[in-house]
Design a protein that fits this description.
alpha/beta; Ribosomal Protein L4, Chain: A; 2 domains; 6-stranded mixed β-sheet; 7 helices; about 15% strand; elongated
Length: about 210
Protein backbone atom coordinates (compact mmCIF):
# COMPACT_ATOMS: atom_id res chain seq x y z
CA UNK A 1 0.00 0.00 0.00
CA UNK A 2 1.44 3.36 -1.07
CA UNK A 3 1.36 6.21 1.45
CA UNK A 4 1.90 9.97 1.28
CA UNK A 5 2.18 12.76 3.83
CA UNK A 6 -0.78 15.07 4.35
CA UNK A 7 -0.12 18.79 4.99
CA UNK A 8 -2.13 21.86 5.86
CA UNK A 9 -1.64 25.20 4.09
CA UNK A 10 1.04 26.23 6.59
CA UNK A 11 3.11 23.14 5.69
CA UNK A 12 2.41 21.41 8.97
CA UNK A 13 2.22 17.65 8.60
CA UNK A 14 -1.19 16.57 9.82
CA UNK A 15 -1.10 12.90 8.94
CA UNK A 16 -0.27 10.15 6.50
CA UNK A 17 -2.83 8.79 4.05
CA UNK A 18 -2.97 5.51 2.15
CA UNK A 19 -3.17 5.48 -1.63
CA UNK A 20 -4.53 2.77 -3.87
CA UNK A 21 -1.52 0.90 -5.29
CA UNK A 22 -3.44 0.04 -8.47
CA UNK A 23 -3.61 3.77 -9.25
CA UNK A 24 -0.44 5.28 -7.77
CA UNK A 25 1.90 2.29 -7.96
CA UNK A 26 0.88 0.78 -11.30
CA UNK A 27 3.12 -0.34 -14.13
CA UNK A 28 4.34 2.72 -16.04
CA UNK A 29 3.47 2.33 -19.72
CA UNK A 30 5.19 5.20 -21.49
CA UNK A 31 3.68 4.38 -24.88
CA UNK A 32 0.17 4.88 -23.47
CA UNK A 33 1.14 8.25 -21.98
CA UNK A 34 2.48 9.25 -25.40
CA UNK A 35 -0.68 8.07 -27.16
CA UNK A 36 -2.96 9.93 -24.73
CA UNK A 37 -1.07 13.20 -25.20
CA UNK A 38 -1.03 12.79 -28.99
CA UNK A 39 -4.79 12.18 -29.08
CA UNK A 40 -5.52 15.14 -26.78
CA UNK A 41 -3.35 17.63 -28.69
CA UNK A 42 -4.47 16.44 -32.12
CA UNK A 43 -8.15 16.80 -31.21
CA UNK A 44 -7.53 20.42 -30.23
CA UNK A 45 -6.74 21.30 -33.85
CA UNK A 46 -9.57 23.11 -35.58
CA UNK A 47 -8.56 22.12 -39.09
CA UNK A 48 -10.25 25.24 -40.50
CA UNK A 49 -7.32 26.54 -42.59
CA UNK A 50 -8.33 26.69 -46.24
CA UNK A 51 -7.48 28.48 -49.48
CA UNK A 52 -9.44 28.75 -52.72
CA UNK A 53 -8.57 26.67 -55.74
CA UNK A 54 -8.95 27.92 -59.33
CA UNK A 55 -12.52 26.59 -59.41
CA UNK A 56 -13.51 28.67 -56.36
CA UNK A 57 -12.03 32.11 -57.01
CA UNK A 58 -14.12 34.79 -58.70
CA UNK A 59 -13.43 35.49 -62.32
CA UNK A 60 -14.22 34.53 -65.89
CA UNK A 61 -13.36 31.19 -67.41
CA UNK A 62 -12.71 32.81 -70.77
CA UNK A 63 -9.30 32.34 -72.37
CA UNK A 64 -7.20 35.52 -71.95
CA UNK A 65 -6.03 35.29 -75.57
CA UNK A 66 -6.19 32.90 -78.49
CA UNK A 67 -4.53 29.53 -78.31
CA UNK A 68 -2.02 29.88 -81.15
CA UNK A 69 -0.10 32.52 -82.97
CA UNK A 70 0.87 34.79 -80.05
CA UNK A 71 4.35 33.40 -79.47
CA UNK A 72 3.49 32.85 -75.79
CA UNK A 73 2.45 29.84 -73.80
CA UNK A 74 -1.17 28.82 -74.12
CA UNK A 75 -3.43 29.91 -71.25
CA UNK A 76 -6.79 28.55 -70.09
CA UNK A 77 -8.20 31.34 -67.91
CA UNK A 78 -7.12 34.13 -65.55
CA UNK A 79 -8.20 32.13 -62.50
CA UNK A 80 -5.19 29.87 -62.95
CA UNK A 81 -2.54 29.87 -60.15
CA UNK A 82 0.10 31.77 -62.16
CA UNK A 83 -2.13 34.88 -62.39
CA UNK A 84 -2.52 37.49 -59.60
CA UNK A 85 -5.81 36.80 -57.86
CA UNK A 86 -5.91 33.27 -59.24
CA UNK A 87 -6.53 30.12 -57.26
CA UNK A 88 -3.85 28.44 -55.16
CA UNK A 89 -2.38 25.19 -56.39
CA UNK A 90 -2.00 22.41 -53.81
CA UNK A 91 -2.90 24.75 -50.93
CA UNK A 92 -4.21 23.62 -47.52
CA UNK A 93 -7.82 22.52 -47.31
CA UNK A 94 -10.24 21.95 -44.43
CA UNK A 95 -9.51 18.76 -42.53
CA UNK A 96 -11.08 16.97 -39.61
CA UNK A 97 -8.70 15.89 -36.85
CA UNK A 98 -10.44 13.23 -34.86
CA UNK A 99 -8.42 10.65 -32.94
CA UNK A 100 -9.84 8.37 -30.29
CA UNK A 101 -8.49 6.22 -27.48
CA UNK A 102 -10.54 3.52 -25.82
CA UNK A 103 -11.50 4.00 -22.18
CA UNK A 104 -9.42 1.14 -20.86
CA UNK A 105 -6.25 2.42 -22.54
CA UNK A 106 -6.93 6.00 -21.41
CA UNK A 107 -7.44 4.85 -17.82
CA UNK A 108 -4.17 2.88 -17.98
CA UNK A 109 -2.40 6.00 -19.32
CA UNK A 110 -3.71 8.07 -16.38
CA UNK A 111 -2.56 5.40 -13.91
CA UNK A 112 0.87 5.27 -15.57
CA UNK A 113 1.18 9.04 -15.38
CA UNK A 114 0.10 9.26 -11.72
CA UNK A 115 2.39 6.37 -10.76
CA UNK A 116 5.35 8.02 -12.47
CA UNK A 117 4.74 11.36 -10.75
CA UNK A 118 4.24 9.65 -7.39
CA UNK A 119 7.56 7.81 -7.72
CA UNK A 120 9.25 11.08 -8.70
CA UNK A 121 7.88 12.76 -5.52
CA UNK A 122 6.07 15.45 -7.49
CA UNK A 123 2.86 15.24 -5.43
CA UNK A 124 1.82 17.52 -2.60
CA UNK A 125 -1.40 16.59 -0.80
CA UNK A 126 -3.27 19.15 1.35
CA UNK A 127 -6.06 18.48 3.82
CA UNK A 128 -7.85 21.49 2.30
CA UNK A 129 -7.17 24.58 0.21
CA UNK A 130 -9.24 27.63 1.14
CA UNK A 131 -8.77 31.39 1.41
CA UNK A 132 -10.85 33.93 3.33
CA UNK A 133 -10.37 36.64 0.72
CA UNK A 134 -8.96 37.28 -2.73
CA UNK A 135 -5.22 37.89 -2.40
CA UNK A 136 -2.59 37.07 -5.00
CA UNK A 137 0.12 37.89 -2.47
CA UNK A 138 -1.22 35.38 0.06
CA UNK A 139 -1.54 32.70 -2.59
CA UNK A 140 2.00 33.36 -3.83
CA UNK A 141 3.25 33.07 -0.24
CA UNK A 142 1.55 29.69 0.06
CA UNK A 143 3.32 28.49 -3.10
CA UNK A 144 6.63 29.84 -1.86
CA UNK A 145 6.23 28.05 1.48
CA UNK A 146 5.97 24.72 -0.36
CA UNK A 147 8.61 25.72 -2.94
CA UNK A 148 6.08 25.23 -5.73
CA UNK A 149 6.54 26.59 -9.22
CA UNK A 150 4.81 25.69 -12.49
CA UNK A 151 2.13 23.79 -10.60
CA UNK A 152 -1.12 22.07 -11.41
CA UNK A 153 -3.58 22.40 -8.52
CA UNK A 154 -6.46 19.93 -8.36
CA UNK A 155 -9.27 20.85 -5.97
CA UNK A 156 -12.62 19.22 -5.33
CA UNK A 157 -14.67 22.36 -6.01
CA UNK A 158 -13.43 25.52 -7.70
CA UNK A 159 -13.35 28.19 -5.00
CA UNK A 160 -13.80 31.78 -6.21
CA UNK A 161 -11.18 33.20 -3.84
CA UNK A 162 -8.61 30.58 -4.87
CA UNK A 163 -9.47 30.99 -8.54
CA UNK A 164 -9.09 34.78 -8.57
CA UNK A 165 -6.04 34.75 -6.28
CA UNK A 166 -4.17 32.30 -8.52
CA UNK A 167 -5.13 33.89 -11.82
CA UNK A 168 -2.22 36.36 -11.92
CA UNK A 169 0.39 33.86 -10.74
CA UNK A 170 2.48 32.64 -13.65
CA UNK A 171 2.41 28.93 -14.60
CA UNK A 172 -0.37 27.95 -12.21
CA UNK A 173 -3.46 26.08 -13.36
CA UNK A 174 -6.54 25.05 -11.37
CA UNK A 175 -8.51 21.95 -12.26
CA UNK A 176 -11.35 19.90 -10.85
CA UNK A 177 -10.80 16.11 -10.67
CA UNK A 178 -13.18 15.63 -13.60
CA UNK A 179 -10.91 17.74 -15.82
CA UNK A 180 -7.65 16.00 -14.93
CA UNK A 181 -5.79 14.83 -18.02
CA UNK A 182 -2.47 13.27 -19.01
CA UNK A 183 -1.19 16.33 -20.89
CA UNK A 184 -1.54 18.71 -17.92
CA UNK A 185 -0.12 16.13 -15.51
CA UNK A 186 3.03 15.81 -17.62
CA UNK A 187 3.25 19.52 -18.45
CA UNK A 188 3.52 20.89 -14.92
CA UNK A 189 6.49 20.49 -12.62
CA UNK A 190 4.48 20.01 -9.42
CA UNK A 191 1.04 18.55 -8.76
CA UNK A 192 -1.00 19.72 -5.75
CA UNK A 193 -4.06 17.73 -4.66
CA UNK A 194 -6.51 18.33 -1.92
CA UNK A 195 -7.29 15.07 -0.13
CA UNK A 196 -10.90 15.03 -1.35
CA UNK A 197 -9.81 15.66 -4.96
CA UNK A 198 -7.28 12.85 -4.78
CA UNK A 199 -9.94 10.48 -3.48
CA UNK A 200 -12.20 11.39 -6.40
CA UNK A 201 -9.42 10.69 -8.91
CA UNK A 202 -8.55 7.49 -7.12
CA UNK A 203 -12.16 6.33 -7.14
CA UNK A 204 -12.58 7.06 -10.85
CA UNK A 205 -9.47 5.08 -11.80
CA UNK A 206 -9.76 2.10 -9.50
CA UNK A 207 -9.97 -1.21 -11.36
Amino acid sequence: MATIDLFDMKKNKVGVIDLDSSVFDAEIKEYLIHDAIRVQLTNRRAGTVSVKTRSEVAGSGKKPFRQKGTGGARQGCRRAPQYPGGGVAFGPQKKTYDLAMNKKAHKAAMKSCLSYLFKENKFTVLDSLTMDSISTKTFASFLSLFSLSKSLIVIDELDRNIDLSSRNVMNIKLLKPEGLNVYDLMKYKNIVFTESAMRKVEGALQS
